[in-house]
């Protein structure tokens, strides 16, 4: 089965060169791009020069003087750090088949950027500069207190002292900083994000891959928000152990639908949510009592099981034994005859992810396979694991995206439901949710409503 993704359409390799003063969200943006592209099966990796600098300079914590461009000793260490990062990056491109690398550093002078540009050209890599420019002092201070005072550079240091030192570090960079310039840099591929994405300047974006990255970063925002996820309530088909179909909820599923408003209210308070459902009856029924605006998305429909739609796993094993085995062997890639694979679902979910990045408080009610794919994006779950994740019925999941990860809270409704989890190598459903040692799984019929937290 040919694997077709945006990464192999043009056989292009891109180096995204971050540009910007400290505390402008460069690492935040870099990590998000890597997570997004990896989710789309595009080999992507971030090379953070700060980490190389820490490795090379040892455990000693630098103060702002270390970043003074007149400090020759320190400058040598910093040059060495970026050289090591670039060397590793080139090795990754050449030996590991890398497609998109992010060079995460301030890259604040044109001299540095010309050096990287030249290296990229010599190695047939497309350089794309991505500058985060920001003069919102309140936001910068918030960024410092959110992520910088807790960085390894300031371990054990009083947050006020760390903040003052970090502001001094910024001023050292300001003294040499040369922003990208529409005239001087007119021949380069670049994107400038001004005050997050209040204004976006785009120059010479030439490849499809670059345009995907630009479109993605344009949609990012940093306002606090939460995303709630739930499977539909238990359906008649779930009880009959059948997959697919468009059945109604079972009596217990209807009970979950009745309880959902209270669960959501408890978790979201008075936040005004928008509910997204699929076009299938069971998600609409689950959402029926929710007092929020609702929107149906065809893209949220369950993975299409093709000729196996409406069968039990036992029937599939009996009628299509080869397919049954092939799916267990590679569940992410296996495409049902006349239906879809997990990879297909990820591709059709891309607009959902893009819209989720743009929006604030959304509750999604959808299906097991679709939820696995969405959850995998936020939690950076690798493809070989994501189709095997346990996402039980009658559980509300709250995701809170943070600077470098996502907090997760699972809230169980305390309404029993069958388990629809099928373990590898068996056609039985139902054992894993109750017995699995997998830390991601939760009992569907817990004795009382309780919360469980995890994070990336
Ligand atoms: P440094 O150069 O010191 O490594 P940095 O530019 O990489 O700093 P981050 O560590 O990414 O900065 O800062 C994370 C913070 O930046 C988060 O709190 C995030 O909300 C915020 N942020 C994300 N995007 C932007 C943006 N475009 N402009 C300003 N702040 C942003
Ligand atoms: O805070 C600035 C920082 O992220 C440092 O941790 C890191 O050493 C430096 O930027 C890397 O950028 P450059 O090599 O451009 O100074």
From TrEMBL:
Its EC number is 3.1.3.46. One of its GO terms (cellular component) is cytosol. GO terms for molecular function: 6-phosphofructo-2-kinase activity; ATP binding; fructose-2,6-bisphosphate 2-phosphatase activity. Residues 5-224 form the 6-phosphofructo-2-kinase domain. The keyword Nucleotide-binding applies. Residues 423-456 are annotated as: Disordered. Residues 426-444 have a biased composition (Polar residues). One of its GO terms (biological process) is fructose 2,6-bisphosphate metabolic process. It is an enzyme of class 3 (hydrolase). Keywords: ATP-binding, Hydrolase, Nucleotide-binding. PROSITE patterns: PG_MUTASE. Substrate binds at residues 231-238, 282. In the C-terminal section; belongs to the phosphoglycerate mutase family. This is fructose-2,6-bisphosphate 2-phosphatase.
